[in-house]
């Protein structure tokens, strides 16, 4: 890179000034990221803590990149100063940050969290999470993966309100409007919920004010009229006026052009004169919006033959003049369009019917949004919109930046927003709330950067009009200085020239915030040019042999040969647009990486897995069973399936169990079924009990799945599905087939990126990237038009007033002018954005840009001639058409010369109607554990015995009595307490303990009686007294640890607690366990006998242990305080 | 750890966590065994909470009159109930989280001994918390209770009552970041005790540490698991740990990796792992265990109905059925539930429905009978505990383990579940008064949500643990994954209920970034004490680029990051799997010939399908495959079609002739139409629920009336005709197969010929009669049938012509009402051309000949069906329900070459 200063050098230095606010337009390749980095660095040198600087990026990926970039520049600044001029600035700024870091002990390099680079969504949730009550979020909320389902449920809830006094009529009103199509209404409502951040704001104000809405239409009319001022001088042409005069004389009073009668002079461009202007426009234009070529009596220009005398002369001359005039005007760009826009304007009146619909609609929208909240509440999940709304709500509480600072821990001193052109209205509002109370010159700054020419996220509510508006008036009264970068560091002059020349024409001449129209601003190339840098336009026709895919594949191959190591990208508008090219590339041996381009559901091996899921999840799914039997994993032929079906109908379990009894099945089929039965039967037994993902994986392997693949690369696809199932099941259980289906349909084949020569991706995805060569194929393809919406709305500012346009959906088979106007605005927006998409795609190229299209040839039998499909307005080719029309025509002419004159072009696709399956005798590898589990058999013996479960809890009091008695006996033996003491305090300590351990008065009393009885028993029992009195080497609650050997011969460490142990006068060590069991009634003997049997193994173990530490003879015993029984066990 | 420096019987070791206690006990045991001992006095080692309770009991024993301790469950519950009932919480979206977060704030306030909250006036978050705080404190006091986190503070004030009873030597371990509560108490103990702090030793030499990076997180985990496998293959006695941040989310993936890498044999055979070599430090949620989930859904039935989802769950899950047959029936019954849009089922609904469909649901009958016998117990308000006892009784009596023998894991789940239910009873203490059964169950569920399950198993050599659990514990080798700058240090997240000022003043957890750095540091230090340590991070997570934790650079300044790549991400046995030649290619385009008794169901649909794609026809009509049905919410297009058909049948049966129609006055006509529409709609309302709503019905009626009117208007303009039949049933034989058809309408024209009319409320096309394969064969079949009949009947009146003069659809659509079809001559119907004038006519220009051709064509189709032809055609792709069976997505590839080519792709 050269050391020369770019032409916009001064702008760049200005843009990093830490005390000023800017909005910077940074076109493609302008080095926006370094500018942002530098500004952030510079800001950091001025703040108390780094958290005061917040930079907002469009994606999390971009946030991570920006953060890393900053960290890297800081690390870089630890080294020596670089030589390159453009690196110097960054280095120096970073250096200063390091100094500040040291001074303020920020430790930025240890903790990159301190750099607040975040997406607007994370910022929203950070804010909302910090204010659980204020934001009504209640704490952090996980984001639902299935917001559509929540919307749908909320929308469906309207059915519960059909009989509701308030809502019932509104629902039925709308249903009637939509031809009683319940599901359609619900679907449209659900769709609206996905945009509720926008209309909720409109509804927020309360009841509907039709005047304001009608005023909004007037404002739009006004704006459109004002655009005519560009052509005012033309319109004032006397020929037009006199023609109008002349014609109006022939019009009846109720003619649609009657308003022409009042025109003496050109009316002023004021919406009050709209009717006249509309008449003028209709006078000049055809229905399709072009200047008239035929003048007739429909507009008062009566045919010459019908005129007489003076009229005839005048009329003739006028018509001649007018024709000429219109012919001239047709050449003036935008003229006809501007007039047509006026012509199509509706009256600013909502009919009573429309008003009612609107009113009902708004009611219903409120209802479903409340229902949605309830839905979110019950699932403790929400969508991003809810979080944004919550943050918005929370921020609404703070008027002063200082209050917000207290709440958020740090004040926000500097806010930077990247990709500002893709900001939505909601995000814009959040920004304005964040800077509420900011005053210019107080040290807080705003820095908005982006490129309105690259705004391509309308489908995510990006509103480029906001960029234009902010350039003009700042945000929320806070002024920002507009700056414009022009240097392009990416592309070669060949590319830049082309882009400058073409897009100057493709883009509209003037900005328009309402329509999101952005004019073009030129770039200056900073890179040197080279001979092999070029822009190329290729025209192809859908000929079998010489089609586009093939041509491009060759072209690409050529480039890979000529420029090995250089990057090549194919950018398409829709995923499907690259399918043909991909297969051609495969055929010509060019490797490509097409991330997220190939749907996994297009692979049979993946569908086989889904079939397995289906039959496990629902054993009645006969389609799944048959699909499975026909899959290569099983491979049973139709005739055999029919035999089985005849025998057992759809009892598929029986198929597997009893197939051998079915007549007509061959031995081979039986072998196949045997294996299948072996695998499937246990899997089905486990379905609903074990994770589905695990069952599927084991079934697939056991059936020989890997051998059944046509291509080993599909293994990755199969495992991608396993992993997806795992993930889904973790989130939700039990899982449904529908859920699996949707999730799989969003999976793409994974590919090896490393070695690929070509990258294929969508144009949207390419934003922010660059490639040496860029290929834009299939530019003739169109995208589908926007769906209908329940409500269309526009929000705009005109003359400092906010205007609204609200249009409820039109009834089936009807055209509502206001709705049409709103549709028109939307489609204009879409058109402007398409042009920008083409710009984004084209500017990814550094050295070479290839544009290409494939047009469809048609043969007209009657005329016996060839033609090609016209270029659709919704295609990107449409924008290049003016420049390349001739090229296309020329190519077409040369192509048709080679063509036969016949329309019969057979395009039968080759279809392989055969089947494949695992060979029946195929030896599947036997799969063994990699790690053999330790001593299997012995472990199995030890495996847990399943005893009867204990559903009874009456024993709880008994257990607590045991605890308390043990405790007291210990204390007494340790002489920390005594029976006398207990007696004196009426066993209060015991009672207290019981209160902690038990929950009700009743239980406490019950337990107390027992515990007290037990203690009194001991006190009055000689054996008891003997146990507790002082002995030699005595222990209470004696804790020992020791090794024991388990059944498998493994050494285990175990802990033991011995209730009481001591050495008696005879030198015998006693080991005694207290048992507080009670027994009423007879058969006391048997009870004790049973207890002894139960506990002697344990005592035996104690004995063995103690023996190791005490060589004295040992005796063991059980003591039953409640029964006053002492039983010696050793013998 | 040098245990010889202390006298085990005279010392007490306090650790920061339970895990550390266990670790020290194990270490101690290992040393004792190494010294040749079999038995030794147990080491007194306990985590902090146990220590506090130990002290508490000592103080109690000393006779101090102390408050009653609430268990942590009880305290938490009391707090949550209070918060939940607070007005400000009512509208919040995530109330659970509010309860938890605020309780956490309470805990922090106790541990940091914060008494003055200093809420910012007007700040609803902080004010709410301050209020809860004081309410809670008062509530506890009034009952004489103490919450678990308060205990230590209480003890601090009563040190003399227990301190003396403590052993003389006290060792602390693992308190890297003690709370003020902890440090004050430990500090105070130093006055009278010998307090020692133990820590892990970190060797100065850092050669035992390796840094590496892998391309993405899943490869990182695979690498770690394979590393562990290699170690275990060498020596299965050693202890190994894989430390995973955010283990919760990755657990099931890691577990699957371990299955694939360790026990693939068992995985394939679907075997139960009872003694795995690995163990996770975190537990599973108890409620999410299938066995438990089913039962909890089922319990709902005891006091309220089931949601559709719950019901489906009960029907599909194998538990709760004692034999396969009844489960099979239940799954069949599920299809009925699935189809319906009914969202909620009461027990009565279920009884009725199951009776109607004759399905036995053991769990339903059980509940029903049980409810009848115990209705009083259930409706009465009682103590929580007695309700719980009822639940246990229910569980004891219902059969809920399915018809398969349960595994040891399932048994353990069951056991844990019952114990968890029993443990719920402790909540009784903090519940005020009596409650009803439903409320008890919901409390029980809340309680159960907190409960976890961990399968019992012997100590496993490989531990997979979260970062926190790894502190203060060592292994023979450890791998830490995910060491990125986002995780080490973590982001500071202050508790929103405590003001930032307090956070800073007390240096609370999450209060500052520096605190997080310190914390991360001590964590890494602790890891460094392991004799072998690998630390890794993933370069990318999805599209997002990641950086290594900057702390590692500081801690290990001389280490370089080693870039690792895996040879394959696929499990090992797949890379060795023999792949070639296992497949064979075969044709299967013909099934069995139709048997003698085959009865055609579904009429002409069969012909249409057979014409387009014989394979799909075979699936549908021979193997009787059909997708699951699902009802629509409102009135469907099909319903509307039926309504129109019925209405027209009524009207034309009544009118019979066009002249009758023409003679009707406008009023009379309107009356007839209205009445008819009303009649058919009323009939339909019996099964279309929305039609029971009058206003909805009105809209639908208007719609229907308009359609009828338009259709009649159309017929008014025709040449005179007589309707000789509506909904005429016929039987036609083709290739020996009998097809039952119903002809919507047959008009007799003035000249005696017949016009056959098929109503369509959609938008039919002429092409559907002309194209090959034939898309709408029914009209052709009608023509064949009527032609034959009229030929047979050989009319007696001579001036009447014979035969069929046209076949038409009547499109009855809001867009337009018109006839579309074919007639024998032009202008018989407006807009309908004669066969010979249709450009794309593939048939003979002569109508009668054409009918003969149709007959031949349809015979052929029927013949092919009869013979079992089942080829896949280019139209097979139209049958979306069958695409997975016909393997449509790969039909464009040359399968034969792929299978037989034997080339090794890739
Ligand atoms: S593709 Fe463009 S917009 Fe998307 S993350 Fe990358 S740079 Fe940002």
From TrEMBL, chain A:
Pfam hit, one: UvrD-helicase
Occurrences of domain UvrD-like helicase C-terminal (ranges): 493-768
Catalytic activity, as annotated: Couples ATP hydrolysis with the unwinding of duplex DNA by translocating in the 3'-5' direction; ATP + H2O = ADP + phosphate + H(+)
EC number, as in UniProt: 5.6.2.4
Domain UvrD-like helicase ATP-binding: 5-492
Keywords (A to Z) from UniProt: ATP-binding, DNA damage, DNA repair, DNA-binding, Exonuclease, Helicase, Hydrolase, Isomerase, Nuclease, Nucleotide-binding
Chain positions recorded as ATP binding sites: 26-33
The protein's enzyme class: isomerase
UniProt cross-references to PROSITE patterns, sorted A to Z: UVRD_HELICASE_ATP_BIND, UVRD_HELICASE_CTER
PANTHER family recorded: ATP-DEPENDENT DNA HELICASE SRS2 (PTHR11070:SF2), UVRD / RECB / PCRA DNA HELICASE FAMILY MEMBER (PTHR11070)
Protein name: DNA 3'-5' helicase
Lineage, top ranks: Bacteria, Pseudomonadati, Pseudomonadota, Gammaproteobacteria, Kangiellales
TrEMBL record, chain B:
Domain of life: Bacteria
InterPro entries for the chain: DNA_repair_protein_predicted, P-loop_NTPase, PDDEXK-like_dom_sf, PDDEXK_AddAB-type
The PD-(D/E)XK endonuclease-like domain, residue ranges: 612-875
Cross-referenced Pfam families: PDDEXK_1
Entry protein name: PD-(D/E)XK nuclease family protein
Organism: Kangiella japonica
């Amino acid at each position: 890179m050269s050391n020369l200063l770019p032409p916009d050098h001064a702008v760049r230095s200005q843009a990093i000034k830490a005390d000023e606010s800017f909005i910077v337009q940074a076109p493609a390749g302008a080095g926006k990221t370094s500018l942002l980095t530098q500004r952030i660095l510079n800001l950091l040198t001025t703040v108390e803590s780094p958290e005061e600087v917040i930079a907002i990026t469009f994606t999390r990926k971009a946030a991570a990149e920006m953060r890393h970039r900053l960290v890297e520049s800081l690390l870089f600044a630890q080294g020596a100063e670089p030589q390159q001029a453009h690196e110097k600035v960054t280095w120096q700024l970073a250096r200063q940050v390091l100094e500040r870091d040291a001074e303020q002990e920020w430790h930025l390099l240890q903790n990159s969290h301190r750099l607040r680079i975040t997406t607007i969504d994370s910022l929203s949730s950070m804010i909302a999470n910090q204010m659980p009550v204020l934001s009504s979020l209640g704490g952090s909320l996980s984001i639902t993966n299935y917001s559509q389902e929540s919307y749908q449920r909320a929308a469906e809830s309207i059915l519960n309100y059909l009989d509701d006094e308030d809502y019932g009529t509104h629902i039925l009103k709308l249903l009637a409007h939509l031809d009683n199509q319940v599901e359609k209404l619900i679907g449209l409502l659900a769709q609206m919920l996905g945009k509720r951040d926008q209309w909720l704001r409109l509804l927020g104000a309360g009841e509907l004010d039709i005047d304001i809405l009608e005023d909004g239409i007037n404002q739009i009319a006004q704006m459109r009229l004002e655009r005519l001022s560009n052509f005012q001088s033309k319109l004032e042409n006397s020929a037009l006026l006199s023609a109008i005069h002349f014609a109006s004389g022939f019009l009846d009073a109720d003619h649609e052009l009657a308003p022409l009668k009042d025109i003496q002079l050109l009316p002023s461009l004021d919406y009050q004169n709209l009717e006249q202007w509309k008449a003028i426009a209709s006078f000049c234009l055809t229905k399709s919006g072009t200047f008239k070529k035929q003048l007739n009596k429909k507009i008062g220009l009566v045919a010459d033959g019908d005129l007489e005398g003076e009229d005839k002369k005048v009329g003739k001359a006028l018509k001649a003049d007018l024709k000429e005039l219109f012919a001239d005007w047709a050449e003036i760009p935008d003229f006809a369009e501007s007039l047509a826009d006026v012509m199509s304007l509706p009256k600013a009146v909502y009919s009573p019917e429309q008003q009612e619909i609107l009113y009902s609609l708004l009611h219903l929208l409120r209802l479903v949004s409340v229902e949605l909240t309830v839905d979110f509440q019950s699932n403790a999940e929400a969508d991003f919109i809810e979080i944004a709304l919550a943050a918005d709500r929370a921020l609404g509480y703070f008027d002063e930046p200082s209050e917000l600072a207290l709440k958020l821990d740090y004040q926000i001193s500097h806010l930077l927003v990247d990709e500002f052109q893709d900001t939505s209205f909601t995000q814009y509002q959040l920004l304005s709330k964040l800077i509420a109370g900011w005053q210019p010159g107080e040290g807080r700054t705003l820095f908005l950067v982006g490129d309105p020419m690259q705004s391509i996220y309308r489908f995510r509510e990006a509103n480029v009009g906001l960029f234009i508006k902010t350039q003009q008036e700042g945000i929320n009264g806070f002024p920002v200085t507009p700056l414009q970068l022009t240097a392009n560091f990416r592309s070669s002059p060949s590319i830049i020239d082309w882009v400058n020349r073409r897009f100057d024409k493709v883009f509209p001449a003037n900005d328009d915030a309402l329509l999101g129209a952005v004019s073009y601003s030129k770039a200056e190339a900073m890179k040197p040019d080279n001979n092999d840098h070029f822009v190329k336009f290729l025209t192809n026709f859908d000929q079998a042999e010489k089609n586009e895919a093939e041509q491009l594949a060759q072209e690409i191959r050529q480039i890979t040969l000529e420029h090995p190591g250089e990057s090549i990208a194919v950018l398409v508008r829709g995923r499907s647009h690259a399918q043909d090219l991909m297969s051609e590339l495969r055929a010509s041996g060019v490797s490509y990486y097409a991330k997220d381009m190939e749907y996994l559901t297009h692979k049979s091996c993946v569908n086989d897995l889904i079939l397995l899921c289906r039959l496990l999840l629902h054993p009645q799914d006969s389609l799944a069973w048959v699909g499975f039997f026909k899959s290569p994993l099983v491979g049973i032929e139709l005739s055999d399936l029919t035999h089985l079906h005849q025998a057992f109908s759809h009892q598929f379990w029986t198929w597997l169990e009893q197939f051998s009894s079915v007549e007509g099945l061959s031995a081979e089929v039986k072998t196949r079924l045997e294996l299948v039965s072996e695998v499937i039967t246990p899997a089905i037994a486990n379905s609903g009990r074990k994770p589905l993902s695990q069952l599927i994986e084991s079934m697939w392997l056991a059936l020989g799945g890997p051998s059944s693949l046509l291509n080993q690369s599909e293994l990755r696809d199969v495992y991608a599905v396993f992993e997806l199932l795992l993930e889904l099941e973790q989130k939700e259980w039990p899982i449904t087939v529908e859920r699996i289906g949707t999730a799989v349909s969003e999976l793409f084949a994974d590919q090896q990126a490393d070695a690929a020569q070509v990258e294929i991706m969508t144009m949207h995805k390419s934003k922010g990237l660059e490639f040496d060569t860029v290929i834009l194929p299939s530019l003739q393809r169109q995208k589908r038009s926007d769906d209908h919406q329940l409500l269309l709305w526009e929000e705009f500012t005109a003359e400092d007033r906010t205007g609204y346009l609200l249009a409820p959906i039109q009834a089936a088979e009807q055209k509502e002018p206001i709705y049409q106007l709103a549709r028109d605005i939307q489609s204009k927006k879409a058109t402007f954005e398409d042009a920008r998409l083409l710009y984004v795609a084209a500017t990814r190229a550094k050295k070479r840009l290839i544009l290409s299209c494939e047009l469809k040839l048609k043969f007209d039998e009657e005329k016996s001639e060839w033609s090609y499909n016209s270029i659709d307005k919704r295609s990107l080719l449409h924008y290049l058409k003016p420049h390349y029309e001739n090229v296309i025509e020329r190519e077409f002419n040369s192509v048709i010369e080679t063509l036969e004159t016949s329309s019969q072009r057979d395009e039968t696709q080759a279809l392989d109607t055969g089947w494949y399956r695992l060979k029946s005798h195929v030896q599947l590898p036997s799969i063994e554990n990699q790690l053999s589990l330790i001593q299997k058999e012995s472990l199995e013996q030890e495996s847990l015995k399943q005893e009867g479960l204990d559903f009874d809890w009456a024993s709880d009091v008994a257990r607590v009595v045991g605890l308390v008695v043990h405790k007291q006996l210990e204390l007494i033996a340790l002489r920390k307490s005594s029976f006398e003491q207990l007696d004196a305090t009426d066993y209060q300590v015991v009672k207290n303990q019981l209160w902690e351990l038990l929950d009700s008065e009743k239980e406490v009393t019950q337990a107390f009686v027992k515990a007290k009885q037990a203690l009194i028993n001991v006190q009055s029992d000689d054996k008891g007294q003997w146990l507790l009195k002082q002995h030699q080497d005595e222990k209470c609650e004696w804790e020992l640890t020791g090794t024991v050997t388990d059944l498998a011969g493994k050494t285990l460490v175990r802990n033991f607690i011995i209730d009481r142990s001591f050495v008696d006068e005879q030198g015998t060590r006693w080991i005694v366990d207290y048992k507080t069991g009670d027994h009423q009634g007879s058969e006391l003997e048997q009870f004790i006998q049973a207890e002894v049997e139960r506990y002697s193994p344990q005592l035996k173990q104690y004995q063995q242990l103690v023996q190791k530490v005490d060589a004295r003879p040992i005796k063991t015993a059980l003591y039953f305080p409640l029964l006053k029984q002492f039983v010696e066990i050793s013998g | 750890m040098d245990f010889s420096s202390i006298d085990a019987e005279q010392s007490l070791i306090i650790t920061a966590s339970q895990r550390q206690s266990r670790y020290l006990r194990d270490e101690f045991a290992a040393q004792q065994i190494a010294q040749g001992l079999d038995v030794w006095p147990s080491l007194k080692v306990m985590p902090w909470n146990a220590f506090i309770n130990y002290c508490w009991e000592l103080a109690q024993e000393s006779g101090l009159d102390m408050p009653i301790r609430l268990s942590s469950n009880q305290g938490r519950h009391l707090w949550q109930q209070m918060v939940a009932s607070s007005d400000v919480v009512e509208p919040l979206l995530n109330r659970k989280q509010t309860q938890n977060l605020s309780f956490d704030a309470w805990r922090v306030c106790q541990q940091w001994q914060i008494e003055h909250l200093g809420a910012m006036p007007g700040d609803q978050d902080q004010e709410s918390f301050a209020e809860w705080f004081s309410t809670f404190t008062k509530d506890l006091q009034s009952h004489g209770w103490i919450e678990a986190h308060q205990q230590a503070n209480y003890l601090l004030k009563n040190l003399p009552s227990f301190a003396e009873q403590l052993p003389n030597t006290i060792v602390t371990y693992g308190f890297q970041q003690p709370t003020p509560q902890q440090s004050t108490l430990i500090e105070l103990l130093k006055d009278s005790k010998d307090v020692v702090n133990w820590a892990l030793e970190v060797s100065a030499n850092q050669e035992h540490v390796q840094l590496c990076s892998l391309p993405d997180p899943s490869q990182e985990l695979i690498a770690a698991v394979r590393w562990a496998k290699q170690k275990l293959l060498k020596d299965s006695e050693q202890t190994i740990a894989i430390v995973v941040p955010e283990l919760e989310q990755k657990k099931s993936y890691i577990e699957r990796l371990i299955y694939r890498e360790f026990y693939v044999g068992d995985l394939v055979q679907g075997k139960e792992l009872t003694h795995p070599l690995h163990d996770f430090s975190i537990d599973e949620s108890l409620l999410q265990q299938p066995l438990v989930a089913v039962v909890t859904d089922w319990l709902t039935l005891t006091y309220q109905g089931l949601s559709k989802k719950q019901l489906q769950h009960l029907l599909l899950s194998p538990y709760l059925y004692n034999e396969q047959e009844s489960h099979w029936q239940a799954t069949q019954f599920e299809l009925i539930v699935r189809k319906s849009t009914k969202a909620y089922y009461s027990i009565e609904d279920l009884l009725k429905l199951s009776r109607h469909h004759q399905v036995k649901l053991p769990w339903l009958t059980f509940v029903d009978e049980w409810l009848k016998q115990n209705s009083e117990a259930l409706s009465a308000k009682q103590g929580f505990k007695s309700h719980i006892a009822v639940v246990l009784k229910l569980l004891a009596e219902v059969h809920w383990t399915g018809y398969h023998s349960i595994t040891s894991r399932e048994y353990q789940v069951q056991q844990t579940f019952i114990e968890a239910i029993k443990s719920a009873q402790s909540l009784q203490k903090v519940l005020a008064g009596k409650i009803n059964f439903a409320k008890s169950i919901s409390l029980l569920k809340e309680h159960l949500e907190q409960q976890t399950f961990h399968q019992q198993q012997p100590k496993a050599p490989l531990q997979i643990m979260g970062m926190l659990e790894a502190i203060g514990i060592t292994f023979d080798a450890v791998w830490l994954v995910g060491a990125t700058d986002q995780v080490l240090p973590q982001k500071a997240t202050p508790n929103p209920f405590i003001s930032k000022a307090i956070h800073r003043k007390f240096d609370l957890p999450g209060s500052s970034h520096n605190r997080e750095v310190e914390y991360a540091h001590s964590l890494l230090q602790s890891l460094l004490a392991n004799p072998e340590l690998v630390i890794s991070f993933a370069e990318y997570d999805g599209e997002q680029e990641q950086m290594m934790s900057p702390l590692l650079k500081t801690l290990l300044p001389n280490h370089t990051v080693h870039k690792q790549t895996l040879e394959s991400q696929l499990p090992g046995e797949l890379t060795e799997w023999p792949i070639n030649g296992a497949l064979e290619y075969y044709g299967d385009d013909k099934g069995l010939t139709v048997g003698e008794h085959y009865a055609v169901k579904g009429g002409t649909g069969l012909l249409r399908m057979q014409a387009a794609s014989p394979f799909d026809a075979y699936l549908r009509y021979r193997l009787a495959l059909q997708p699951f049905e699902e009802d629509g919410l409102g009135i469907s297009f099909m319903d509307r079609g039926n309504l129109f058909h019925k209405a027209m049948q009524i009207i034309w049966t009544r009118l019979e002739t066009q002249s009758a129609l023409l003679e009707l006055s406008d009023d009379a006509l309107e009356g007839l139409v209205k009445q008819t529409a009303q009649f058919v709609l009323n009939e339909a309302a019996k099964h279309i629920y929305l039609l029971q709503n009058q206003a909805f019905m009105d809209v639908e009626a208007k719609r229907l009336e308009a359609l009828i009117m338009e259709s009649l208007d159309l017929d008014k303009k025709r040449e005179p005709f007589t309707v000789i039949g509506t909904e005429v049933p016929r039987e036609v034989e083709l290739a020996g197969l009998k097809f039952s058809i119903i002809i919507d309408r047959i008009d007799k024209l003035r000249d005696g010929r017949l016009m056959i009319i098929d109503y369509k409320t959609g938008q039919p096309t002429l092409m559907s009669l002309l194209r090959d394969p034939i898309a709408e064969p029914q009209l052709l079949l009608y023509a064949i049938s009527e032609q034959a009949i009229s030929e047979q009947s050989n009319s007696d009146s001579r001036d009447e012509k014979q035969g069929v003069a046209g076949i038409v659809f009547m499109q009855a659509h809001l867009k337009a009402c018109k006839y579309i079809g074919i007639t024998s001559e032009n202008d018989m119907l407006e807009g309908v051309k004669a066969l010979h004038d249709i450009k794309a006519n593939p048939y003979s220009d002569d109508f009668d000949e054409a009918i003969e051709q149709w007959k031949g064509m349809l015979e052929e189709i029927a013949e092919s069906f009869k013979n079992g032809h089942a080829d896949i055609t280019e139209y097979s792709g139209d049958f979306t329900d069958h695409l997975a069976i016909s393997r449509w997505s790969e039909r464009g590839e040359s399968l034969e070459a792929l299978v037989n080519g034997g080339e090794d792709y890739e």
